[in-house]
Amino acid sequence: MAWGKKKGGRKEPLFGLPAALADLRLTAADRIPGGGDDKPKKSAKSSARRKGEDAGDEPPRERKAPAGRSGAKRRAKSRGGFGLGRLVYWGAVLSLWGAIAVVGVVIYVGAHLPPIQSLEIPKRPPTIQIVGIDGSMLAQRGEMAGANVALKDLPSYLPKAFIAIEDRRFYSHFGIDPVGILRALVTNVLHRGVSQGGSTLTQQLAKNLFLTQERTMARKLQEAELAIWLERKHSKDEILELYLNRVYFGSGAYGVEAAAQKYFGKSAKNVTVAEAAMLAGLVKSPSRLAPNRNPEGAEARAQIVLAAMADANFITDAQAKASIGHPSYNVKPAGAGTVNYVADWIGEVLDDLVGQIDESIKVETTIDPKLQSVAEAAIIDELAAKSVKFNVSQGALVAMTPDGAVRAMVGGRNYSESQYNRAVTAKRQPGSSFKPFVYLTALEQGLTPDTMRQDAPIEVKGWRPENYTHEYFGAVTLTQALAMSLNTVAIRLGFEVGPKNVVRTAHRLGISSKLEPNASIALGTSEVSVVELVGAYAPFANGGFAVAPHVVTRIRTLSGKLLYMRQPEERNPVIDPRYVGMMNAMMRETLISGTAKKAEIPGWPAAGKTGTSQDYRDAWFIGYTASLVTGVWLGNDDNSPTKKATGGGLPVEVWSRFMKTAHEGVPVANLPSAPGGWGLSNLAQAASQVSPPTAIAPAPAAANNGGYRPPPPTRANVRPEAAAGLDGWLMDRLFGGNR
């Protein structure tokens, strides 16, 4: 390696080249002016600096190359061009990524929607219209949706009211309104809150048809995508018509027709400008502004809509001013009547009758609206007058024809306060109203209404059942014992015929609840419902045939297609006609001289049995004629004792009030009687001619013409009020179930 010399004494390596070649290196004079890069210059400066350092001199001052105007301009231009280019570049990059993000969001949102090609306008939620035996509307279940109304059939100002207040640019946007969104954004920023929405009518329709009501960004994006799809698939008028027929107006009303019927009692085709404004105003907050809940708020909102309509030139200022303060709404009260207990019962059996409901239906029932109103008034008025005195808070009533068709049902005093159906769902101790099954079992084993049994103290393994007044009548007929509801006789009969046989009899006649076959079953200690107990009494009124309590006769779609029709039941005899006549004669005496002497229907032969459970917790009366079987229960939901409310008191009063009205104008008919005697064909006339004896005596032989009327048991030392209730002490003390 050779080293070359340079001025200043610095030696540079020649890397093996001859020393003569060292002079061939390029010098500054050999370089092109302005050419080259910064590195060599920097290297030259560094070399010079190092050279000076090597020579022991001070570093030379940096020389500034003279720069002309053209050079300065070039440098400034170079710097400015670099910033603008960068800005354009990054703007393009960000725009590209933004577009990719938007496309990605659209794809993501679309992936969580059903395939667009399979999207269809969903059917209306099914409604259940419940009508009475006369075809009148009783109740409605499901979402209240009126019939679809064509846009051309509506007054022009009705759809315009919605456009004015909800979507002024409806006919100019493509499903989404950027102008409206921007305007809403500015308004909300200025008001520092959400005071205006940017959703179009199409977006609202998309939400109502396909989406939930949750307030999330994902739902809003889905809403926007579906709105665009709706605009491509349907015309503006079609979208507006769909919207008006699907939007929610509060109080269960969907669509303008249902809302107009709900709030104004008229069709949407006939609403006024003021009514149209009120309907349009409800969309913002239907639950809060519904006229039946907030009439002042609904009217104030309607005035805002009228002003918007005038501002959009849909109506004149004069029309707006004339309509303010004149909504003339006629709010229908929310369904709180006792007929809703019937509607709930129907809802429970529909699945068994027609399966799952996917379209609106009409259910034709056996309910008589007139009798339903009478039954409701009888329960409510009686409780209003005497609930405090007797500490009774609830009541139930079921009335059915002898073939099981329910004509009226009251499940409680106030449906709006309690939807618990005490006529169908609740089960309570029937007390002595269960005793007819004991006596029927005895008759079927060979006893007769004249059979004598002892009314005397009895003890069964330490159990000493007693009568209500602790008094005993000695030898009495079965008729007398049943009429006076003597507990000791019922207990003796229960042992005699066997508790299991009593249970079989009750189940055969229609009791479906579980019954315990013990000694106390004769006093009604197993719980039953009102509807099944009334149904079990029906064979006494129809000649001995089993019935199935029912309320539905036909079910049709609103288009008229028949889905269900009740078929006539086979007449299945469960009681021999002889025993039917005997039981009717015996229970008829209950109304004449027994525990239900207050029960009466002028001119009508009637029979029945009272019942009162332990500590006066339940008071019953089940009574019937050849036309109607009706049962009444009164008590408390918490099973707390009443203040000595007995079956012969409040229930009989309710029953009598209802039955008198129910039999007005109905031809009198006799209860079924047994062939050859024990009948009631002449019982009404005989009852007015026979005076009760002063002492207990065996009943006379049955008349061949069926006019038997056994004498009631009486004693000189028995008070009249005691004669109306000689049972119950045992139920008060031990098991429940006196009169």
TrEMBL record:
Query: What is the protein named?
Result: Penicillin-binding protein 1A
Protein source organism: Bradyrhizobium frederickii
Q: What's the family?
A: In the N-terminal section; belongs to the glycosyltransferase 51 family. In the C-terminal section; belongs to the transpeptidase family.
Q: What reaction is this protein's catalytic activity?
A: Preferential cleavage: (Ac)2-L-Lys-D-Ala-|-D-Ala. Also transpeptidation of peptidyl-alanyl moieties that are N-acyl substituents of D-alanine; [GlcNAc-(1->4)-Mur2Ac(oyl-L-Ala-gamma-D-Glu-L-Lys-D-Ala-D-Ala)](n)-di-trans,octa-cis-undecaprenyl diphosphate + beta-D-GlcNAc-(1->4)-Mur2Ac(oyl-L-Ala-gamma-D-Glu-L-Lys-D-Ala-D-Ala)-di-trans,octa-cis-undecaprenyl diphosphate = [GlcNAc-(1->4)-Mur2Ac(oyl-L-Ala-gamma-D-Glu-L-Lys-D-Ala-D-Ala)](n+1)-di-trans,octa-cis-undecaprenyl diphosphate + di-trans,octa-cis-undecaprenyl diphosphate + H(+)
> What range(s) does the Glycosyl transferase family domain occupy?
143-309
Q: Which SUPFAM superfamilies match?
A: beta-lactamase/transpeptidase-like (SSF56601), Lysozyme-like (SSF53955)
Mind listing the GO molecular function terms for this protein? penicillin binding; peptidoglycan glycosyltransferase activity; serine-type D-Ala-D-Ala carboxypeptidase activity
**Gene Ontology annotations of biological process type:** cell wall organization; peptidoglycan biosynthetic process; proteolysis; regulation of cell shape
Q: Where is the Penicillin-binding protein transpeptidase domain?
A: 395-626
Q: Which UniProt keywords apply?
A: Carboxypeptidase, Cell shape, Cell wall biogenesis/degradation, Glycosyltransferase, Hydrolase, Membrane, Multifunctional enzyme, Peptidoglycan synthesis, Protease, Transferase, Transmembrane, Transmembrane helix
The pathway entry for this protein reads as: Cell wall biogenesis; peptidoglycan biosynthesis
| Keyword presence, Membrane | yes
One GO cellular component this record assigns the protein to is:
outer membrane-bounded periplasmic space
Instruction: Write out the ranges of the annotated region (Disordered).
Output: 30-78
Q: Which InterPro entries match?
A: Beta-lactam/transpept-like (IPR012338), Glyco_trans_51 (IPR001264), Glycosyltr_51/Transpeptidase (IPR050396), Lysozyme-like_dom_sf (IPR023346), PBP_transglycosylase (IPR036950), PCN-bd_Tpept (IPR001460)
| Extent of Basic and acidic residues compositional bias | 50-65
Q: Where are the transmembrane segments?
A: 87-111
